[in-house]
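Lab notebook, bench 4. The sequencing result for the construct came back, and we need a structural model before the next group meeting so we can plan mutations. Quick request posted to the team channel:

Model the 3D structure of this chain.
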Amino acid sequence: MTIAAASVTDEASDFDLAPGERWFVAHSLPRRETLARDQLRAQGFRALLPLCERTVRHARKLRRVMAPLFPRYLFVILDLDRDRWRSVNGTLGIAGLIMAHARPLAAPEGVVETLAASSDPKGAVRFRYDLKRGQTVRLVAGPFAQALGVLDRLDDRGRVELLLGVMGGVRLNVVREWVEPAA
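Done. Here's the predicted structure in token form:
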């Protein structure tokens, strides 16, 4: 699965946490994640909006689009003792911070850090799965997106060959990023 972090800047150090800082989860208004991220950044907050590449079908055409990995959610770095965190709730595009006992609820340690640290210079985050021959996999892109198949071959150039169970069995040769293990 290819994922892009929309708010990743040229330097990954923008997401290094200082003492007292944590990642918090902000809930956005429907389809306003990018607006919310931009507004938070304009206020001086550091925000991360993870995106994933999806195949969209419309009028018998396929196109790849970047969509939020977690629809209606983004992450923001806050120090609750230092920052004016209540202003996040009033930010354009934000429905509110996820709260517990009248205080923002921090994201589990390591989750957001992994998303930010796994990004390349363009902001794409790639999760590498250990794939094995004979394993059941799901296509996440292309015309057969969401179809299940059996992994037949892996090569050193980043391509995989799999057998799909549609139309009596179809053999496909695709890039590794289009395949993930089936749950």
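Residues 55 and 64 are 5 Å apart (CA to CA).
Will bring this to the meeting.
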